[in-house]
């Protein structure tokens, strides 16, 4: 497993290919639907961002958090279904330069084209393994828009060590395991139909 350090090195990301396995050490941030909308709105309004969004991987996640003595702890941080963010990611990459997206279930052609244009990758994290991610978190660096968005939709900036394993399933050359598998499913269904 190759370990990538943040801030993200664009050349290192471009060198990644589907089926590569990586881990992340440094910082990642969580962002679901509402967080994407919030950050893009700030950009359009010319308002400052809370941190350098393009420097860190974006994790599609609504974490379960616990607060003890004014400190936040990640109880569980499993990935959410990434296709929900398909309507945002091309604009997100153009606006912020984010190059690594982490989630589950894959993303579509719109995101694939944006990954090619911006030199990015999509990485799959195992669904149902939220406690594994929680174990990689060394501390919560900060949380943004908590009062406005609530715990799952807020943006959590996390310091992680060897967060992974993450499987690259979409790369900057336009390859997509999800597209390949979808094609095979269609082929198999057509073959099965002929036997009925």
Describe the structure.
- The chain is an alpha/beta fold and 196 residues long.
- The protein has a single domain, classed as fumarase.
- The protein is 35% helix and 30% strand.
- It has 7 helices and 9 strands; from the N terminus they run E-H-E-H-E-E-E-H-E-H-E-H-E-H-E-H.
- It has helices at residues 10-14, 33-44, 86-96, 109-118, 130-136, 146-149, 177-195; strands at 2-5, 21-30, 58-59, 64-68, 71-76, 100-103, 121-124, 137-144, 155-170.
- The strands form 2 sheets. A 5-stranded mixed barrel has the order 2-3-6-7-9. Strands 4-5 form a two-stranded antiparallel sheet.
- The longest helix has 19 residues, at 177-195.
- The N and C termini lie far apart (44 Å).
- The mean pLDDT is 91.
Quick summary of this structure?
The chain has helices at residues 10-14, 33-44, 86-96, 109-118, 130-136, 146-149, 177-195, and strands spanning 2-5, 21-30, 58-59, 64-68, 71-76, 100-103, 121-124, 137-144, 155-170.
Order of helices and strands: EHEHEEEHEHEHEHEH
What oligomeric arrangement do these chains adopt? Answer: single chain
Q: What is the fourth-level CATH superfamily?
A: Fe-S hydro-lyase, tartrate dehydratase beta-type, catalytic domain
By CATH, the topology is fumarase
Q: In the CATH hierarchy, what is the class?
A: Alpha Beta
- Distance from N terminus to C terminus (CA atoms, Å) equals 44 Å
Radius of gyration: 17 Å
Low-confidence stretches: none
- How many strands, which pairing sense, and closed or not: the largest β-sheet? 5 strands, mixed, barrel
Structural class: alpha/beta
Could you say which overall geometry the principal axes of the C-alpha atoms support? globular
Mean pLDDT: 91
Number of helices: 7
Indicate how many domains the architecture comprises: 1
């Amino acid at each position: 497993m190759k370990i990538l350090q943040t801030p993200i090195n664009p050349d290192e990301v471009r060198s990644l290919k589907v089926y590569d396995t990586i881990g992340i050490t440094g910082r990642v941030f969580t962002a679901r639907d509402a967080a994407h909308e919030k950050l893009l709105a700030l950009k359009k309004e010319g308002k400052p961002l809370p941190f350098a969004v393009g420097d860190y991987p974006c994790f599609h996640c609504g974490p379960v958090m616990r607060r003890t003595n004014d400190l936040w702890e990640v109880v569980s941080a499993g990935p959410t279904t990434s296709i929900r963010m398909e309507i945002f990611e091309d604009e997100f990459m153009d606006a912020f330069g984010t190059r690594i997206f982490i989630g589950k279930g894959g993303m579509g052609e719109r995101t694939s084209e944006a990954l090619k244009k911006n030199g990015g990758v999509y990485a799959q994290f195992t669904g149902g393994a939220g406690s594994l991610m929680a174990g990689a978190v060394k501390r919560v660096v900060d949380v943004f828009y908590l009062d406005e968005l609530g715990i799952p939709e807020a943006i959590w900036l996390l310091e992680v060590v060897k967060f992974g394993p993450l499987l690259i399933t979409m790369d900057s050359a336009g390859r997509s395991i999800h597209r390949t598998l979808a094609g095979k499913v269609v082929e198999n269904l057509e073959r099965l139909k002929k036997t009925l």
